[in-house]
Structures are given as C-alpha cells and as structure tokens.
C-alpha cells in the first residue's frame, strides 16, 4: 500500500514578511538631538561604509553607498543600555528565544545624496574566522527638521515572494527586525548635499 506524500503548499506570491517593530520617539528627545549634533560635528571622522563579500570587508558603492563612524563616543553607553532595554520585547515580538547578549555592536551611518544599500541580510557566517552571531538589528533614525532629503526608506523584503514594507526614516524612530530578515535602503536624494542634511542612522546589532 502506498500513502500519498504530503504536497508542499506553493508559497503565496506575496511571500512571508518577517516580524518587525517600529517605535516613534525612542530616545528622550534631548538625547536624540544631542546624538544628531554629535554626528554632524564628527563629519571628518566618517569613512566609506563596507560590506562583507566572500568573508572580507570591502567597499562597493554599487551595493552600499554610505559613510560610517564606528563609535558613538560619549553616547555609546546610553544607546547600548536603550538597546538592551528593548531586547526582551523584541525577542517576544519576533519569537526569538531569550538569549544572553555577548556584545552590542554600534555604528553611526550618514546617507547623503544618492546613498542606498541593496537588499541584504545582517548576518555573516564568519568575520575574521570567528562566528559573528548578530541576532537583532535595531536602527535609530536621526535628521534635521524639516527633513532635507527625500526617499531613503528602510524596505523590508518578504521571504519567497514580492511583498515589501517601507518604513520612513523619521527622526528618533526605532526600526527593529531579526538580523536575518532581508532589507534594503532605498536610494535617497539630498539636494544641496550639506553633511548636516543627511539621513543619519544609528545601526545597532545585538549579538548572542
Ligand atoms: O539605514 C537603514 O535603514 C538600514 C541600514 C542597514 O541595513 C545596514 O547598515 O545594515
Ligand atoms: Fe542591514
């Protein structure tokens, strides 16, 4: 006697959007403004943002065009604390079993005219031959008001389908998602091109 094999359901054309979370006014307003001022004051220290390709960090502006600063200076500790405070809620919302954070990795990114980041995930298998276990990605957006750039949405992409969700990078908005979720930064325009007018983002990765 033969029994029928279960037939796999074809994925819906829209695919599966992974859970994500947004929170307006994430930091106390004074802190968000001070962080933006810090970013603007440190223009000279920003470097071209890199990507991981074949296990190596490289700069490729066809994939990622952005300037980054590796440390938040006097704000590192307070932002780390805010990220760790958000962790239990994010674990619950995303269905990720509670884990002990071994590291909170933070960088400050400045997206100017033409900046973008193609669809990618934030998890690497190895970095410098060590596991790089990013679990949660948190992005805090900062910009001068009124906003002087257009575009630059964070786009979340569905698994196995064409669905997308665009998130406008509003000042002091937190966007969070599992680090393995595909996402991209839509190309932006920043006419005039002043550094202070850029789309700033604090990228935070909580490692297990
Ligand atoms: O700026 C954003 O909205 C996301 C940036 C990003 O995906 C990254 O730096 O890995
Ligand atoms: Fe990313």
From TrEMBL:
Q: Which GO terms describe its molecular function?
A: dioxygenase activity; iron ion binding; L-ascorbic acid binding; oxidoreductase activity, acting on paired donors, with incorporation or reduction of molecular oxygen
- Start and end residues of each Fe2OG dioxygenase domain: 97-208
The cofactors named for this UniProt entry are: L-ascorbate
Superkingdom, according to UniProt? Bacteria
Translocase as UniProt keyword: no
Assigned keywords, A-Z: Dioxygenase, Iron, Metal-binding, Oxidoreductase, Vitamin C
Q: Which Pfam families match?
A: 2OG-FeII_Oxy_3
InterPro entries associated with the record: Oxoglu/Fe-dep_dioxygenase_dom, Pro_4_hyd_alph, Pro_4_hyd_alph_FE2OG_OXY
Q: Which PROSITE patterns match?
A: FE2OG_OXY (PS51471)
Identify this protein by name: Prolyl 4-hydroxylase, alpha subunit
Query: Where is the organism placed in the taxonomic lineage, from the top?
Result: Bacteria, Pseudomonadati, Pseudomonadota, Alphaproteobacteria, Rhodospirillales
């Amino acid at each position: 006697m033969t029994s029928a094999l279960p037939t796999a359901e074809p994925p819906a054309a829209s695919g599966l959007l992974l859970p994500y979370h947004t929170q307006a006014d994430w930091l106390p307003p004074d802190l968000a403004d001070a962080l933006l001022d810090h970013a603007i004051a440190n223009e000279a220290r920003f470097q071209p943002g890199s990507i991981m390709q074949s296990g190596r960090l490289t700069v490729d502006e066809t994939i990622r065009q952005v300037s980054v600063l590796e440390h938040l200076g006097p704000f590192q500790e307070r932002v780390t604390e805010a990220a760790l405070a958000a962790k239990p809620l994010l674990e619950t919302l995303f269905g990720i079993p509670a884990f002990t954070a071994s590291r909170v990795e933070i960088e400050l990114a400045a997206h100017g005219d033409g900046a973008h980041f193609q669809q990618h995930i934030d998890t690497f298998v190895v970095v410098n031959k060590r596991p790089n276990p990013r679990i949660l990605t948190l992005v805090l957006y900062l910009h001068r008001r009124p906003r002087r750039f257009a575009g630059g949405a964070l786009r979340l992409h569905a698994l196995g389908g064409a669905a997308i969700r665009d998130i406008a990078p509003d000042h002091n908005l937190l966007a969070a998602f599992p680090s393995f979720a595909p996402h991209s930064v839509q190309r932006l325009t920043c006419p005039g091109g002043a550094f202070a007018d850029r789309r700033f983002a604090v990228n935070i990765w909580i490692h297990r």
